[in-house]
Amino acid sequence: MTELLPHVLSALILGLLGGGHCLGMCGGLMGALSLAIAPERRDQRLRLLLAYNAGRILSYALAGLLLGLAGWALASGPLAIVMRGIAGLLLIVMGLYLAGWWSGLTRIEALGRGLWRHLQPLARRFMPITSPSRALLLGGLWGWLPCGLVYSTLLWAASQGNALHSAALMLAFGVGTLPVLLATGLAAERLGSLLRKRGVRVAGGLLVMLFGLWTLPGPHQHWLMGH
Questions:
Q1: How far apart (Å, rounded) are the C-alpha atoms in residues 130 and 137?
Q2: What is the pLDDT of residues 177-212, one digit of tens each?
Q3: What is the pLDDT of residues 155-182, one digit of tens each?
Q4: Nearest Cα to 153, choosing from 92, 94, 97, 65?
Q5: 11 contacts 153 by C-beta, under 8 angstroms
Q6: Rg of the chain over all Cα atoms, to the nearest angstrom
Q7: How far apart are CA 192 and CA 5, in angstroms?
Q8: If DSSP states are collapsed to H, E and C, what string results for 39-106?
Q9: In the beta sheet, which residues pair with residue 138?
Q10: Cβ distance 135 to 52 under 8 Å?
Q11: Are 71 and 159 a contacting pair, CB within 8 Å?
Q12: Half-sphere exposure of 23 (CA within 13 A, CB side)
C-alpha cells in the first residue's frame, strides 16, 4: 500500500493539472450540460453537475478495473518488469505534457473515436437533464469520450498489475479533474486560471516525471528513495 501512495498522488496531479486539456475536451460539454438542465431544475444545478461528474469518475474507475484485469494477467508472467518500465515511461510522458514541453500523448485519442460514435446517440437520449439519476447515467457515458490524457492515464494504471489498484488510480485521477470541470459548469474561472499558470504546471509535471523515474526498474530507485 505504501508503494501505491506515490502513484495515487501522481494520478491526482494528472487530473488536477490536466485541467487545461479537460477544459478543451469537456469544458464545452459541461456548458452544454448546464444548458441541458430543464428550466424547472435550474435551482438544482450544483446537485445535477455533481451527479454528472460522479458518473464520469465512476466510468474511469470501471475502465481502470477492466483494463487492470488484463494488466494483472500480463504482470503475473515474465512481462512484469516490462510493464513496470512502460508505467514509468508513461508517467514521464504525461509529466512532459503537464509541463507543456511535449503533447504527443493527445494522439492516443484516435483509439476511442469508434466507440464514442456508438455512445454519442445514446448520450443524447438523457437530455434534457431532469433528475440526478439521468445526470449520473449521462456522466457515465461521457466518461468514455476520447481523451488522450484519460487513455494515457488508463494505460499507466493498467500497467500496475493489480486490477483494484488500477481502478483506485483512475478514481483518484477522476477526483483530480473534478475541481476544474465543476468550476466550469458553475462558470467559475479563478481555479482554472490558477491551474493554467506556467509555474504550477511545470512543478506538477516535474513531480510526475520524478515519480516516473522512481517507477522505472533499476538501481536509481534506491538513490531516489534516499532523497
A1: 12
A2: 888 777 766 655 555 566 667 787 788 778 888 877
A3: 889 888 889 999 999 999 999 988 877 7
A4: 94
A5: yes
A6: 18
A7: 26
A8: HHHHHHHHHHHHHHHHHHHHHHHHHHHHHHHHHHHHHCCCCHHHHHHHHHHHHHHHHHHHCCCCCHHH
A9: none
A10: yes
A11: yes
A12: 17
Residue 96 cell numbers, joined: 512532459
Q: Say how many residues make up the chain.
A: 227
Is pLDDT of 129 > 80? no
Give buried/exposed letters for 191-204 (b at 16+ CB in 10 A, else e). Answer: ebeebeeeeebbeb
For residues 95 and 119, give the distance between their C-alpha atoms in angstroms, rounded to a whole number.
30
CA–CA distances in Å: residue 53 to residues 71, 82, 85, 147, 168? 26, 34, 32, 16, 16
Q: How many CB atoms lie within 10 A of CB 40?
A: 8
